[in-house]
TrEMBL record:
Family membership: Belongs to the SIMIBI class G3E GTPase family. ZNG1 subfamily.
Originating organism: Metabacillus herbersteinensis
Cross-referenced InterPro entries: CobW-likC_sf, CobW-like_C, CobW/HypB/UreG_nucleotide-bd, P-loop_NTPase, Zinc-reg_GTPase_activator
Protein name: CobW family GTP-binding protein
Boundaries of every CobW C-terminal domain copy: 218-303
A Pfam short name: cobW
Transmembrane helix listed as a keyword: no
Record key words, sorted: Chaperone, Hydrolase, Nucleotide-binding
CDD domains assigned: CobW-like
Catalyzed chemical reaction(s): GTP + H2O = GDP + phosphate + H(+)
Keyword tRNA processing: no
Length: 311
């Protein structure tokens, strides 16, 4: 199945997200790629939506933030776009106060996980605002740092407003927070699309499609079991999950039970509830530096041991 590339544009208010999106869309159209946009605004109206060319499918999410109150709706809008159009990519412009990992989490509902491929988290940073960040309230300062920390690419914008010397200082500071992120200093988001797009690397096992993309800072892995899983062995497995795995969600069937369970795991707390739906036995993992081949091996063993426990 062909999966749609997802790009998440994060970055504090006024950093240049809409300006960057316009540049990206111009270049995507020149390249004849079919792309769509989801625009999230905290307010009741979206002013920035007018800046999107008419031929690009656009969905708006207003009056809240996709990383919290509107997280369910993001999945719905993504599904609508994927079902209505044959797309290569979807760009999500999040609100300035969104946490990128929460946005990523909202994109990966178990129903969508096989249809989308998180390609990149791009954080826009206003260089002058970063220098003055001590003037911001602590939660906002923390948020901007988190946006930097979890980015695959940091577009360090508005460098016309700072000195060469300050630029070097900022680059060092960003490197300390996110050593693997690619830093692109710009004026007026003047960048070439190829510098922020990545080519997907194939999984190591050619016979089995893997949905983990190695270049990403925050990695995701989708695993589908072919058989029901022993509940006790699954609980044992949960106890071994490292802190670097932030989220696990999906549907699971247990040996000897006819119903499917909706499974959620966040910040070390697992929860499973009966689901009326007959879903695939699929789990989505989201984590920092997630070792997907090791995880795949562990989950395959879990399935093998579950089957052995039946006999
Ligand atoms: N001086 C300067 N201004 C810039 C630069 N890039 C963007 N701007 C201006 O900054 C303002 C905010 O840019 P936007 O692209 O709307 O930023 P945004 O992140 O989408 O803003 P929100 O939607 O409010 O979060 C606009 O007036 C831009 O023209 C730059 O490199 N230098």
């Amino acid at each position: 199945m062909r999966s749609v590339e997802i790009y998440i544009l994060a970055g504090f208010l006024g950093a240049g997200k809409t300006s960057l999106l316009q540049r990206i869309l111009e270049q995507e159209l020149e390249n004849n790629r079919k792309v769509a946009v989801i625009m999230n605004e905290m307010g009741q109206v979206s002013i920035d939506s007018d800046s999107i060319p008419e031929r690009i499918p656009l969905k708006e999410l207003l009056n809240g933030c996709v990383c919290c109150t509107l997280s369910d709706k993001l999945g719905v809008r993504l599904s609508e776009l994927i079902n209505q159009f044959e797309l290569d990519a979807i760009y999500i412009e999040s609100t300035g106060v969104a946490h990128p990992v929460e946005v990523l989490d909202a994109c990966l509902s178990p129903l969508l996980a096989e249809k989308v491929r998180i390609q990149s988290i791009i954080t826009l940073l206003d260089a002058a605002c970063w220098l003055d960040r001590h003037k911001l309230k602590i939660p906002l300062r923390k948020l901007i740092t988190e946006q930097v920390k979890h980015a695959d690419t940091i577009v360090l914008n508005k460098i016309d407003r700072i000195s060469e010397e300050s630029l070097r200082v900022i680059e060092n500071e960003l490197y300390m927070i996110n050593p693997t992120g690619k830093i692109i200093p710009t004026k007026f988001t003047n960048i070439n699309l190829s510098t922020i797009q990545y080519v997907e690397r194939k999984g190591q096992d050619e016979h089995e499609k893997t949905h983990a993309i190695d270049h990403l800072h925050i990695k995701t892995y989708v695993h589908t079991f072919s058989h029901p899983i022993n509940e006790k062995l699954f609980e044992d497995f949960l106890r071994t999950i490292p802190d670097s795995i932030y989220r696990v969600k999906g549907y699971i069937r247990f040996t000897g039970k006819s119903e499917t369970f909706l499974f959620q795991y966040a910040y070390g707390m697992p929860l499973h509830t009966k689901s009326g739906l007959k879903m695939n036995n699929t789990l989505v993992f989201i984590g920092d530096g997630l070792d997907h081949s090791n995880l795949q091996k562990t989950l395959r063993n879990l399935e093998k041991n579950s089957m052995a426990a039946v006999h």
